[in-house]
Structures are given as C-alpha cells and as structure tokens.
Amino acid sequence: MENLKNKTIGSFVAEDFRTAAVFSKYRIDFCCKGNRTVTEVCEKQNIDADALLENVLQVVQSENNGTIDFNSWPLDLLADYIEKTHHRYVEEKTNVLLPFLDKLCKVHGANHPELFKINELFIGCAGELSQHMKKEELVLFPFVKRMVKTKDTDGVLHQPSFGTVANPIAMMMHEHDNEGERFREIATLTDNYTPPADACTTYRVTFAMLKEFEADLHKHIHLENNILFPKAVILEKDFVEVE
C-alpha cells in the first residue's frame, strides 16, 4: 500500500480507466493534474490515502467488463481515436450549448446572474478548444503518426519545425490546464451542475449537457496528458538519428 502512495493519479487511470470514477468522487483531478502522487493529492485535499487506495484497488481487482485498454493502443490509433471521438464531440456539443446558454441568460439571467459568467466562461472554452484541437490535428498528431510509421519502417525521423515533440506537447498541456481551471469555475458556479428549483426544461438539459461535456473533456485530456503525450516523448527518443 505504501508503494502505491507514490504512484501518480494519472498512471492509475492510464492502467485502468475505471479508477477515474473513484478519483472523481473525491474531486481529484486525474487529467490536467494527473502527474501528482496519491500522497501529494491526499495531503493537499485532506483525504485519507488508505481509504482512497482501498476504493481504487476494489475497482482494479473487480472484473473488467469490456473497459477499453487505451494504454495498450499504438499511438497513431490513439491519436485517430481522440480526434474522431473527442474532438468531434466538442464540436457537436459546443454548437448546441452556446445557443442554450445564450437563451438561459435572456430568460433567467435576472434571477440567476451567475448564468452570465457561466456563459462567458463557456464561450471562452469553445473558442480556445477550437484552436487547440486544430493545432493538434494539423501539427502534433501528424508528427506522432509520422514517428510511428518511421519506426515501423526503420526510417529516419527528420526534425520538425518545432524542434522536438516536447515543445508542442508543453503548449497543449498548458492549454489543458486552462480549460480544466475554466470548468472548475463553471462547476462551482452551477453548484456541480445542480439546476435551481425554478429551472425550466432547457435549464436542466443545459446543466446536464455541461456536466457531460466536462466528463468527456476529462477523459479527452487524460488520454493525451497521461498516455499519448508521454509515450510520444519516449518514442521520439528511440530515434538515434534526427535530422
């Protein structure tokens, strides 16, 4: 048990994504801040580390009913999955949430002024994520796929314009941190997506969609921060000759 306390949150989730539910229950960030150890997190958030690990181990040792082992996937497949699953999700849900939030501000803003701040935060999130995903799709992911193909064919990896893959990765992780912080604020303003007593159907649907959006974003960032990015850095080091 003591050795597990020095293990990072992100590595637990990378090995078994079902543990994400345990960390979420304790309000532990497993995506943007997944590089912290159990000890670090528990000391900072005043959590009983033994109780937390007991819950985690119960999940890990239970029968795995079809949970996808993303940690075993080749990086080119994982990059494609993130783009086709999570990037598309963000694009589709953003187009629905923006007009919903705008409507809530017009109809309920007088009684619930926090809606204006929630709307402002989500508008910022939508714009930043759109640019962020394009950088991944046009720059980072193609290079990751090229590394995989080059290694498979015993080729030579030519140095990209950004120098090393660690450079765009650092930028992407910084942007992940920004969006994680933005959604923490949204969660606080919505009382963890709890609609007020006078909420109409649109109000309730919007809050449910925001909660789902945050959950998908956590998984999205986890797959990149804790699996794709560190493995891409390791893969790049496998190439002896970088021109």
UniProtKB/TrEMBL annotation:
Keywords: Cytoplasm, Iron, Metal-binding. Residues 84-232 form the Hemerythrin-like domain. The keyword Oxidoreductase does not apply. InterPro entries: Hemerythrin-like (IPR012312), RIC_family (IPR019903). It holds the Pfam family ScdA_N. Signal peptide: none annotated. It is found in: Cytoplasm. It comes from the Bacteria. Coiled coil: none annotated. Its main location: cytoplasm. The keyword Lipid metabolism does not apply. This is Iron-sulfur cluster repair di-iron protein. It comes from Flavobacterium tagetis. The lineage of its organism: Bacteria, Pseudomonadati, Bacteroidota, Flavobacteriia, Flavobacteriales.
